[in-house]
């Protein structure tokens, strides 16, 4: 029974985390993906994702233009590869070590501090991290050049 409850919580968190992102153009709506991008990616990749962030001149390797991921992948947004880059399974030379100065291990289930929000109910930290990564991927997908 506990395993079923855990699964339901993970699914609910994912649905709530990703489902609320679709209505981002309406005023007053909260965009989790944009918030993740603004707090973790914008300094190198720039506010529009073009690779012209405020740290861009300090980088040894230029930050990539995140708006062309779909074009560079034959018209298909590379969700699996983007996920692997964000969670650290796929190393990107310009990102350096996994302890990257900008966002480091923020997407590691061991380092996310959500327990203060879920004190009286079981939660799956990996599900919480996955929802944040999927929100960021959704936002990156919306940034793609047409």
Task: Detail the topology: elements first, then pairings.
Layout lengths: L1 H18 L12 H9 L1 H4 L23 H4 L6 H9 L37 H18 L4
Helix pairs in contact: 1-6, 2-6, 5-6
Please provide a written account of the structure.
With 146 residues, the chain is mainly α. It has one domain (2-142). It has six helices and no strands. It is globular, with a radius of gyration of 16 Å. Mean pLDDT is 74; it is low at 7-12 and 15-24.
Keywords:
146 residues, 0% strand, globular
Structural class: mainly alpha
Question: What is the radius of gyration computed over CA atoms, rounded to a whole number of angstroms?
Answer: 16 Å
**Low-confidence spans:** 7-12, 15-24
Q: What oligomeric state is this?
A: single chain
User: What's the story with the biggest beta sheet?
Assistant: none
Q: What's a quick, concise take on this entry?
A:
The chain has helices at 2-19, 32-40, 42-45, 69-72, 79-87, 125-142.
